[in-house]
């Protein structure tokens, strides 16, 4: 396979790389042109590249290679083994090549780079030194891997001769991270750096995106050699293959199922965000009048204010989304992986439905649910193929009764904001944010506040950034830093809990140093909220080590000590005015909102239950799931628990 790198003019004429970071797929399966576009974004800014054969250090080669790949921001923390790279980084910053953001903990750097990638669609980059610096990166790498985020992680390492001797601050970060990266390298020869960086960016951004690791021994950074630059996209790893195109037969079979479905449902995951497939999702939904539900990762792929939207499904999804997935006769999964927090009890998930599963990762198709029509391809490409093949189609009114039934569920089972009595309810905070900052980027930590935010906030593509797969407490504030660096003029809000914010509270120092105008809103109930809810519901109210009031800091005072404006809201009458004041503050702000201590997040699908068996709902049995199933082949009726007709054997 021959590669011709894009010229800067060609790169400038292409669609931005943000639209080309593709979702869920095998490590090496994206068209090379896409990877080239990603790699050479803003290549015109490269200032005075070195000539072929000029003697430079390995550290210079690394910085030059990163610059050639359009890197504009690096999040990191220095240390002994990575000092040669940081010394060259100083020079690179002086040249105006890029900007380094000093985080206060390496984990914060990974989350910032992760969110930078999620928000922009480009590859995020972070640095860490050897030993404890490298191991501090592991949680962030695993977070990116679980959510398919393109990220290049560069670590320092002890000198080559010391590797394997248990030298000071030596750890085998290559071996430690093998299960949680797409690929990794230990650089043994500085002459390999240009090629390795080019391969790293290609692998991270291609196919199903994900993190990669480059471990650079200290003496590799200082050793000089005759440098031959490697242009983005010109180094192809062994085994690279282009993304598969959707098979025409699969597209036709999928279209036939859509044309005959009376109760279809679009189930949209994070892969649709990565593939920039939101316009195709909207067109398909409107053409065939198909209701749309999203996963936590898929929020923003479809406007939740649209009349076809049914919100998020799963453990804390909307009742109408969970009822819809239980009664649908066709489930179209687009860039979603049928994870357990979505499906509940797997054998009762969409029990009446035929399944079309569209995903770029062949390993995901059929892993948890065997589809009738598998489509292994990029989500946007596959949906566009469906749209092209169905240009003359419409819904022909087939789904109108289905939509009316869903509308009934919406009326009887809405998301509930408690009556404005007593202490502020957490849901009131989300509604206030939705009203005051409808167009903001939202990052979250993990817990009850995350689920309330997912339920009540409406966001656009790439404006909802949350740790979904790994559920990493402490993700939200450093993630907001990454988004704010990428979009300095945009409003960025981190929604956190009082327990999770403490996991990376030190990043207030980063917000203050760079005057990043991030607004941190803490929903403070004095608990590890989701842990308390589970202990109340499933452990007979034995609240073991979940209360956080002992030792809780004065959050506004703590924020002020870092140089961040602090607010505390206790009174409902202050909620809108104080939030508005905090949001209008020109610099970073920290808002501590004291809310009801015992509020639970509903609806909730208990562990081991089906999605239709939610708790925390008002009782409206007349609208509940139909207890019977009706065979489309012979017309007989049988109990809802049956998957096949007892009369003729047809699948129900």
In summary, what is this structure?
By secondary structure, this protein is an alpha/beta fold. It is built from 24 helices and 22 strands. It is 34% helix and 15% strand.
Structure description:
The structure is a single chain. By secondary structure, the protein is an alpha/beta fold. Strand 19 (565-569), helix 24 and strand 20 (589-594) form a beta-alpha-beta unit. Helix 18 crosses helix 19. The longest helix has 15 residues, at 106-120. Mean pLDDT is 90; it is low at 1-48.
Keywords, separated by commas or semicolons:
alpha/beta, six-stranded parallel beta sheet, single chain, 652 residues, disordered N terminus
Write the layout of secondary structure elements.
Elements: H1 8-13, H2 32-39, E1 54-57, H3 58-68, E2 73-76, H4 83-94, E3 99-102, H5 106-120, E4 124-128, H6 132-135, H7 138-146, E5 151-157, H8 173-176, E6 183-186, H9 193-205, E7 211-217, H10 218-222, E8 224-227, H11 248-260, E9 264-268, H12 270-274, H13 278-288, E10 292-294, E11 309-312, H14 319-327, E12 330-334, H15 340-343, E13 354-359, E14 373-376, H16 379-389, H17 400-412, H18 426-436, E15 441-444, H19 448-456, E16 464-465, H20 476-486, E17 492-497, H21 508-514, E18 519-524, H22 529-538, H23 555-562, E19 565-569, H24 572-584, E20 589-594, E21 628-630, E22 637-639
Parallel strand pairs: 2-3, 2-4, 4-5, 5-7, 6-7, 9-10, 9-12, 10-11, 12-13, 13-14, 15-16, 15-17, 17-18, 18-20, 19-20
Antiparallel strand pairs: 1-8, 21-22
């Amino acid at each position: 396979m021959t590669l011709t790198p894009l010229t800067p003019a060609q790169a400038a004429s292409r669609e931005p790389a943000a639209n080309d970071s593709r979702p869920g797929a095998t490590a090496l399966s994206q068209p090379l042109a896409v990877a080239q576009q990603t790699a050479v974004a803003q290549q015109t800014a490269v200032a005075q590249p070195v000539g072929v054969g000029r003697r430079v250090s390995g550290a210079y080669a690394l910085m030059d290679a990163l610059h050639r790949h359009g890197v504009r921001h690096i999040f990191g923390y220095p240390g002994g083994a990575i000092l040669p790279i940081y010394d060259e980084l100083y020079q690179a910053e002086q040249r105006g090549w890029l900007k380094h953001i000093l985080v206060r903990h390496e984990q914060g750097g990974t989350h910032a780079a992760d969110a930078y990638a999620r928000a922009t669609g480009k590859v995020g980059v972070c640095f860490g030194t050897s030993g404890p610096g490298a191991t501090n990166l592991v949680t962030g790498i695993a977070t990116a891997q679980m959510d398919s985020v393109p990220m290049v992680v560069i670590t320092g390492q002890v000198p080559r001769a010391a590797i394997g001797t248990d030298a000071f601050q030596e750890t085998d970060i290559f071996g430690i991270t093998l299960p949680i990266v797409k690929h990794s390298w230990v650089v043994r020869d500085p002459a390999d750096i240009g090629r390795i960086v080019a391969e790293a960016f290609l692998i991270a951004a291609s196919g199903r995106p994900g993190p990669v690791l480059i471990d650079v021994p200290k003496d590799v950074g200082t050793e000089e050699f005759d440098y031959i630059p490697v242009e983005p996209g010109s180094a192809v790893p062994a085994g690279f293959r282009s993304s598969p195109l959707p098979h025409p037969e699969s597209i036709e079979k999928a279209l036939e199922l859509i044309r005959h479905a009376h109760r279809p449902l679009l189930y949209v995951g994070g892969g649709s965000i990565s593939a920039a497939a939101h316009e195709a999702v909207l067109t398909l939904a409107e053409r065939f009048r198909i209701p749309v539900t999203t996963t936590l990762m898929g929020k923003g792929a479809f406007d939740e204010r649209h009349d076809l939207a049914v919100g998020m499904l799963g453990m804390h999804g909307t009742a109408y989304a969970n009822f819809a997935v239980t009664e649908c006769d066709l489930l179209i999964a687009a860039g979603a992986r049928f994870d357990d927090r979505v499906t509940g009890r797997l054998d009762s998930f969409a029990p009446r439905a035929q399944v079309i599963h569209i995903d770029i990762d062949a390993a995901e198709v059929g892993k948890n649910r065997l589809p009738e029509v598998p489509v292994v391809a990029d989500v946007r490409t596959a949906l566009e193929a469906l749209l092209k093949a169905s240009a003359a189609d419409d819904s022909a009114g087939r789904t109108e009764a289905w939509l009316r039934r869903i509308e009934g569920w919406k009326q009887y089972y809405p998301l509930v904001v408690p009556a404005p009595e007593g202490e502020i309810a957490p849901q009131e905070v989300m509604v206030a944010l939705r009203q005051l900052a409808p167009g903001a980027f939202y990052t979250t930590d993990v817990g009850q506040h995350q689920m309330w935010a997912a339920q009540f906030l409406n966001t656009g593509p790439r404006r909802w950034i949350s740790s979904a797969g790994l559920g990493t407490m402490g993700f939200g504030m450093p993630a907001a830093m990454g988004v704010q660096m990428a979009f300095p003029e945009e409003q960025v809000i981190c929604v956190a809990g009082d327990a999770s914010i403490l996991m990376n509270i030190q990043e207030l120092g980063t917000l203050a140093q760079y005057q990043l105008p991030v607004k941190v809103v803490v929903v403070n109930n004095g608990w590890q909220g989701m842990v308390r809810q589970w202990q109340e519901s499933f452990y007979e109210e034995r609240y073991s080590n979940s209360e956080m009031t002992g030792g809780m800091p004065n959050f506004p005072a703590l924020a002020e000590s870092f140089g961040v404006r602090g607010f505390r809201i206790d009174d409902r009458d202050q909620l809108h005015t104080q939030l508005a004041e905090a949001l209008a503050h020109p610099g970073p702000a920290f808002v501590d909102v004291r809310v009801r201590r015992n509020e639970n997040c509903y609806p909730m699908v208990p562990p081991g239950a089906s999605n239709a068996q939610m708790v925390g709902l008002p009782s409206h049995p007349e609208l509940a799931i139909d207890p019977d199933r009706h065979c489309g082949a012979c017309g007989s009726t049988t109990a809802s628990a049956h998957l096949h007709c007892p009369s003729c054997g047809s699948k129900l």
